[in-house]
Design a protein that fits this description.
223 residues, alpha/beta, Rossmann fold, 10 helices, 8 strands, binds adenosine-5'-diphosphate, binds deoxycytidine diphosphate
């Protein structure tokens, strides 16, 4: 990590648009992008492949250290995630993987195991980092911090459309339940809970289009 490398953090709950907005802003600025949630999802999925019990913290911590995770920009603009040499992008995006990630993310030693890996993404010319604790724990000295929100109903609707467009069969009511459960677990855990940093700019994206949000975030960085 270079002390002078500019960092923008974008935190928020599931479906608030962190990933979409972060990638677009990073593209426009020509900066690197860290999808920290993908690291937690990858460890959860790798643990599943290795039959590790989600209630076995010591084995999960070993898994967090041992899992090889690489990101690759695909030709269609999607970010592919390669876990232990397997393209796990589609498996990672499922709600099952999200729930497993949220469960293992509550284990302090798992969070500690992933800390340095996240900080290594900070390379010139700049970094946009998205997650739950980017502005509070991983990059507390970030130059700009954004906290995105949207109503739970709108977030569930967005996820519904997103998964449907990929041919994944889900129900809106089921997604809303899962989103509310994940919000509660991520916000109530003892270590690095989901919350805005004191110096974060909050943007409620309910009813806003993607372009509107990108404009607001870029305006903040350029100010
Ligand atoms: N402001 C917005 N308005 C409408 N849809 C949005 C907005 N931001 C994101 N989306 C859509 O919502 C879905 C979930 O966004 P995503 O970036 O994956 O959220 P997160 O990373 O916070 O879980 C995506 O399909 C995305 O295109
Ligand atoms: N910085 C982070 C990122 C994700 N997590 C955990 C908590 C989240 O519910 C899961 C999945 O995160 P991810 O950002 O991929 O999920 P969403 O796209 O917001 O649905 O991982 C975390 O604890 N800290």
């Amino acid at each position: 990590m270079t002390a002078s490398t500019p960092i923008l953090t974008i935190d928020g709950p599931s479906g608030s648009g962190k990933g979409t907005i972060s990638r677009l802003v990073a593209q426009q600025l020509g900066w690197h992008y860290l999808d920290s949630g993908a690291l937690y999802r990858a460890v959860g999925v790798a643990a599943g492949w290795a039959d590790i019990d989600l209630a076995d913290p010591a084995a999960l911590v070993r898994c967090a250290f041992d899992t090889n995770i690489r990101f690759r920009d695909a030709a269609d603009g999607e970010l592919r995630v390669i876990v232990n040499d397997v393209d796990a992008t589609d498996e990672l995006r499922t709600e099952t993987a999200g729930a497993a990630a949220s469960a293992i993310a509550a284990i302090p030693e798992v969070r500690a195991a992933l800390k340095d890996r996240q900080r290594h993404f900070c390379e010139p010319p700049g970094l946009v980092a998205d997650g739950r604790d980017m502005g509070t724990v991983i990059f507390p000295g970030a130059d700009w911090k954004v906290f995105l929100t949207a109503s739970a109903e709108e977030r569930a609707e967005r996820r519904y459309k997103q998964l449907n467009s990929k041919g994944v069969s889900v129900t809106l009511a089921g997604l809303l339940r899962e989103i509310l459960a994940r919000d509660a677990r991520d916000a109530q855990r003892a270590v690095a809970p989901l919350r805005p940093a004191d110096d974060a700019v909050r943007i409620d994206t309910t009813g806003l289009g993607i372009e509107d949000v990108v404009k607001q975030v870029l305006a903040l960085v350029k100010r």
